[in-house]
Write a structure and sequence with these properties.
Layout: H1 2-37, H2 40-46, H3 60-84, H4 92-119, H5 132-145, H6 160-181, H7 194-207, H8 210-242, H9 244-250
Helix pairs in contact: 1-8, 3-4, 6-8, 7-8, 8-9
Bound molecules: protoporphyrin IX containing FE (2 copies).
């Protein structure tokens, strides 16, 4: 009975998230058109007025870890969706291998990035902390992205939406790893499976069987898959359209940012006319 309900739930999730994703893509296309109509695209890509960044360049390690993350997440999303919907013939074994290899890589990568954030010499966890100022200025950031206002407050390395998204990625990925490992039902650990060890003793006991607990884990793994697809689409779109030079440098691509045009939101706002000199970049960060 409960399994039938869960099967139905899974169909609803497929339909619901597919529709939601189409709506998202339409919204992002609309946002891009807004960027063109308000002249933001011209200002950025033609007149090269990009946000200014203070402080030293981003070190190699976080860039490398991010790149590895992007690559692994694409591999996991692709192979995971294939495991669920085999959209070509004969790939099952290969795709399971891809999923199993990258699930280890992404888990190690996550631990490594968290170590970097909190314990490395160049630890950067403070860049992600949402401050009182972020909360006060959040409406302005949202009004800027919805084209109501022409300028956005520049507070630190990341704005409140970036901080929120980047911070959310962490528990989501931990949950994804947890529910993912709980999908492994082979009893290779002294007669127990990862599913038994991760779920059996509590969720299994709670809902009546370890198998049913496994169903919940699978459903949660699938929901989080979609949340990642949605968040990553928005994140990638904004990173490319809002700050293309930062995108280029973050991925180690050559950028002409430093040789052309004006920086525009050194401090305060990015409403300076084309060609305006950069505002005082030595002013201290707001955080
Ligand atoms: C973080 C570490 C992860 C672990 C440990 C993990 C583990 C697993 C395992 C063991 C399976 C079952 C594979 C099989 O049946 O052979 C699975 C399925 C799946 N994974 Fe992951 N995975 C992880 C991350 C991800 C990510 C990041 C995504 C997508 C963004 C993803 C999407 C999926 C999907 C869609 C399925 C198919 C689920 C279904 O059958 O309904 N996984 N995962
Ligand atoms: C096509 C995919 C992606 C693109 C183009 C992209 C692009 C970027 C860029 C340009 C930045 C730097 C922003 C800045 O310095 O202002 C950034 C930061 C970040 N991105 Fe992505 N990203 C992608 C996928 C992902 C995925 C899949 C995740 C996590 C699951 C992720 C998590 C993060 C995090 C946590 C940061 C903060 C900085 C850091 O990690 O050092 N990104 N991304």
């Amino acid at each position: 009975m409960a399994e039938i309900t869960l099967t139905e739930l899974n169909v609803w999730l497929d339909v619901g998230f597919t529709i939601l994703y189409v709506v998202l893509v339409v919204a992002l296309v609309g946002h891009f058109i807004g960027n063109v109509l308000t002249g933001r695209i011209k200002k950025r890509f033609v007149h090269k007025q990009w946000p200014h960044h203070e402080g030293p360049p981003v070190p190699f390690l976080p860039k490398f870890l991010h790149f590895q993350h992007v690559f692994s997440m694409f591999a996991l999303a692709f192979s995971g969706l294939y495991i669920r919907f085999p959209f070509f013939d004969g790939g099952r074994t290969a795709m399971r291998w891809v999923h199993y290899v990258f699930m280890i890589i992404v888990t190690i990568n996550l631990i490594w990035r968290l170590w970097y954030a909190f314990y490395a010499k160049q630890r950067d966890y403070k860049e992600f902390a949402i401050t009182k100022e972020d909360i006060v200025t959040a409406p302005k950031v949202i009004l800027y992205y919805t084209f109501v206002k022409n300028s956005k407050p520049h507070l630190g390395k990341y704005n409140v939406m970036q901080k929120g998204t980047y911070t959310l990625f962490v528990p989501l990925l931990i949950l994804q790893a947890y529910t993912g490992f709980a999908l492994v039902a082979d009893q290779f650990i002294f007669g127990y499976s990862p599913r038994d060890l991760l779920l059996g003793w509590w969720l299994g006991a709670l809902v009546g069987s370890t198998d049913l607990a496994g169903w919940y884990a699978r459903t949660a793994h699938y929901v989080i898959t979609w949340l990642f697809i949605i968040l990553t689409t928005i994140h990638a779109y904004l990173s490319m359209t809002e700050d293309f030079p930062a995108f280029q440098s973050f991925f180690g691509l050559p950028s002409d940012h430093d040789s052309h045009g004006a920086h525009d939101d050194a401090h305060g706002h990015d409403t300076e006319p084309h060609g305006a000199p950069a505002l005082n970049p030595s002013a201290s960060k707001a955080e």
